[in-house]
């Protein structure tokens, strides 16, 4: 087995449940946004009455909070993540609800004064507005447009129609249309360095919407091409985009 095959097998056998990316240590790096989402989230949870974290993954980011409100709920759709989040969050008093990430959210109107999410795959603004109390806040960090497109287009070719997706201006307009007022909107472009093809396989297995239907067998030759580029030229460079968004539900 050559070096390429060993790296591919390593990435293919890694556990991709949850949203802990520590497996990539030494294999890939990504800059962090300047605003410190986890720190700000913890502060807001400390002063909330009832909170909801949407698409919590394995609960890794939410679990960093120092304290939680008396009523604290998290939703997640993928069964391995639901189980992982429950193990991490239940001891902290957070209820984890299995939810398909499609409307409606399984909660009453005006149920929460704080709704949060980090990197949601989908954002249903009308549902967020419905479950927020008047004056309540949605606070989240979203993935922005063209995120990791250098890597995505390496496998899929040019994706011009997808480049506008997740644009913060569009999301802000949708939030306003749902009855929310934009309080804060910040953006950042961040450098990604990928140092071996094992990291590529891991990422494409974990972030499944980057290259839909990805399998090693299907993309083996393209993986080998990328492996050779990294071996000859050094780390593969891509860029992620993020935006911090805070929106408040207008009082009736």
TrEMBL record:
Domain Methyltransferase type: 52-139
Record keyword Kinase present: no
InterPro entries: 23S_rRNA_MeTrnsfrase_RlmA, Methyltransf_11, SAM-dependent_MTases_sf
GO MF annotations, alphabetized: S-adenosylmethionine-dependent methyltransferase activity
Keywords carried by this UniProt record: Methyltransferase, Transferase
SUPFAM superfamilies membership: S-adenosyl-L-methionine-dependent methyltransferases (SSF53335)
Key word Transmembrane helix present: no
A GO biological process held by the record: methylation
UniProt protein name: Methyltransferase type 11
Lineage: Bacteria, Bacillati, Actinomycetota, Actinomycetes, Micrococcales
